[in-house]
């Protein structure tokens, strides 16, 4: 058995010991059946544990076992959700499962959380609803096996590293993870006749446009490796789909915030990547006292208050756009959509909303600009409003942040613990 416990996220709150449970993974299998009894010789305990393991194994489809997903059942859409252990992917998987889709999640857990998968498994324990496969999309052989064993109807490709700052420091990681892995997915789709793709792209592909708001025909001139890698992936997808009967939807997300309003899932980024973290995570970390204060990166931008302008879209609205895209995807058609609210908010405005949502007077330090940042981006969402009948519903920044804050407060160690604190 391969011990992959080092891949679990480190404790977010240094004052609390890390819950060091070894990951129950064996090769590519995901199963809780591999735990060994701690005390040898205690036969009765061993028998009970074995019985429990068999029960759990029955509930947790494993990659190498007979797949309950290998048959194509008419009327049930089976969606491959790459990156389904991550922030957006897990929220999308939850919505798909709620809407009665069958879901297979593939994730290498490099940025996502096994805890999110466990929550989804608890919510949807029925055999044949949710399958989790621990695998890296960079491994074409494994990806092909996954496609060969499963009859996917559609792919939602979320899996990606997604920090603008990190991308400027580690560009090759971004090109590999985003661009190359998309190629692997497309090749597997072609080889196995899967013809529907919903692709997670980003406003970062536009770079620093001259005109606001950004429409889908605004020229794309990305200025950081993250945006460039996503743009390349988009181009490959478009070339690949040309002249084919592929149904493709490319969704260009603006800045995603919030979490499941019912508090089942949240955003739990890797603590070791905190320095690259997004503004929402940084605000919450500052409010929780995990970091001494929030660093506002750049106050000399040509904007109303000197800080960057972004369009913050709630994750619940974003996953709704995915479900609508899947519904409206048609053979031989490509749809490209901005997914945003259409409203630009400055970093200073964001910080004020975060202070109100958390009730904490967060300390704010003003620093130099962050490499790779653009001054102002916000969307014109009229195309997606019109064509997919989608519009953002939760447009109150403070409300989205309040929902996310509730989850953060009750998950000080991310998915590893649910210790509630009174602030
Ligand atoms: O600690 C921080 C983090 C961020 N910021 C600022 O907040 C603004 C937003 O930065 P974020 O890192 O949250 O988000 P970005 O706009 O860089 O990209 C984000 O949105 C588009 C998505 O596709 C990307 O995946 C996501 O990272 C920037 O101006 C940034 O400099 C801070 O001032 N302090």
Overview of the molecule:
With 423 residues, the chain is an alpha/beta fold. It is 36% helix and 15% strand. It has helices spanning 43-59, 87-98, 114-123, 140-149, 164-169, 171-192, 225-241, 279-288, 315-328, 347-358, 382-388, 397-410, and strands at residues 25-26, 29-30, 78-82, 102-107, 130-134, 154-157, 196-202, 247-253, 255-257, 294-297, 309-310, 312-314, 333-339, 345-346, 364-367. A seven-stranded parallel sheet has the order 5-4-3-6-7-8-13, sandwiched between helices. It has a two-stranded antiparallel sheet with strand order 1-2. Strand 4, helix 3 (114-123) and strand 5 form a beta-alpha-beta unit. Helix 2 (87-98) crosses helix 9 (315-328), helix 4 (140-149) runs parallel beside helix 6 and helix 10 packs across helix 12. It is globular and about 55 Å long. The model is unreliable at 1-37, 53-68 and 418-423 (pLDDT under 50). The structure holds uridine-5'-diphosphate-xylopyranose. Uridine-5'-diphosphate-xylopyranose binds at residues 162-164, 202-204, 253, 255, 278-279, 282, 295-298, 308, 310, 347, 370, 373. Uridine-5'-diphosphate-xylopyranose (UDX) is lined by residues 162-164, 202-204, 253, 255, 278-279, 282, 295-298, 308, 310, 347, 370, 373.
Structural class: alpha/beta
Count of alpha and pi helical runs: 12
The portion of residues forming beta strands comes to 5-15%
What is the mean predicted local confidence, pLDDT?
86
Given as residue ranges, the uncertain stretches (5+ residues, pLDDT < 50) are: 1-37, 53-68, 418-423
Query: Helix fraction?
Result: 25-40%
Give me the side-by-side strand order of the main sheet: 5-4-3-6-7-8-13
Helix-strand pattern? EEHEHEHEHEHHEHEEHEEEHEEHEHH
Bound molecules: uridine-5'-diphosphate-xylopyranose
